[in-house]
Amino acid sequence: MVTPLPLAPAVMGVEELIKSINDPINNFAWGWPTVLLISATGILLMLRLSFMPIRRLGYGFRLMLKPTTAKEDDAGDVSPFQALMTSLSATIGTGNIAGVAGAIFVGGPGAVFWMWVVAFFGIATKYAEAVLAVHYREVDPLGNHVGGPMYYIRNGLGPNWRWLGILFALFGMLAAFGIGNGVQSFEVASALVGTLGIPNFVTGVVLAVLVFLVIIGGVKRIAQVTSALVPFMAVAYVLACVIILLSQVSAVPGAFGSIFANAFTGQAAATGTLTQVILTGFQRGIFSNEAGLGSAPIAHAAAKTTEPVRQGTIAMLGTFIDTIVVCTMTALVILSTGAMDEKLSGSNLSIASFDAGIAGSGGVVTAGLILFALTTILGWSFYGEKCAEFLLGVKAITPFRLVWVAVVVIGCVAGDRGIVWGVADTLNGLMAIPNLIALVLLSGTVYKLTRDYAFSE
């Protein structure tokens, strides 16, 4: 008989201590204080820009699909489209499948309405983030274009605010290992062991090799891979949702009706309060599209462009595609198939919804989870790397990549260590605070750059 390790109780005691410290901070980072700050910042930016991000959505789509011009080749590392796909690779993930299902399970159908609301104003937030990222970006010693909240805090607000940029980079680097790596790796391993019986360690090794082969090539290779995978998986998933909805077409109006009917009541929420409906919708919406967290502008700073407004107009499409399109599709499938009656949550609810619509189609959800998680690992590797570079210099890049690959294996094997990922989740939420402070203080710069740009193309 194997004797339990004597350190096990001590380890459990440490975990309990960490949990007791982390839980109150997490309640702040993902509770009303930060959620209201993110929402208020989006509203401020949208009003100050006179709803330009909404009025220029069509313009943004035209820019996204437009071939790169010679002028745009003067600066940057990847095309504007590739920058968008890199940022989408990190946002279109388990939150679009399991997250939406969780929002409906906890907050009821009405939570989807509040996801839409926070995404509506989040479009302006994402626009401002990318505008500032390109405007204040730098070229590092390796010749790569680097930017994001830590750079527009330092270069836009001045040296006295550098400490705020350091805080963002520190939160971002540490959070990346959890929310962008360990959690995602475990999702892939869990899906494969459950469907194909592949051991977690085997999944970890294979996944680590794949991730290494991509991230070792830097942002250019990451952009190439995500530009191939993200459009494919997003279109395939949305198409699958449309097919399910067509098979349940008579129930779709009722699904929309339940979203609006429950948006202003707490009847379908787990706690029976309207507050829970709104908070759940806001939390899941923010977690899904990451508008305000400051992650996406790190990718957009690498875009080949000389016009910050152009990239900002492309960047804001990420929030629209992620929440308004993909999350809505998931929600409608769940609500129109009646799978909610089974009292399931997370990815299990999404899988059951697909199977209820068309028998055997739940495999689409499993495949989507695997691909979404893989691209999230790739996208967040770049975010974490750039945060590490800001803190420690370019010498930190190679060690960071090696540790990142190692965490892929660890996440697959030991990804159920909830306290570890709980801390990472907290750090992920705390990223928003330095970023939002900078967005508010630099909103005048965003307005001026937008006002001076000619939307004539």
TrEMBL record:
InterPro entries attached to this UniProt entry: Na/Ala_symport
A GO cellular component annotation in the UniProt record: plasma membrane
Membrane topology: Multi-pass membrane protein
TM helices/strands, residue ranges: 29-47, 160-179, 191-216, 228-247, 314-336, 356-382, 430-449
Keywords linked to the UniProt accession: Cell membrane, Membrane, Symport, Transmembrane, Transmembrane helix, Transport
A GO molecular-function annotation: amino acid:sodium symporter activity
Matching Pfam families: Na_Ala_symp
Cell compartments where the protein resides: Cell membrane
Name of the featured protein: Sodium/glycine symporter GlyP
Native species: Candidatus Synechococcus spongiarum
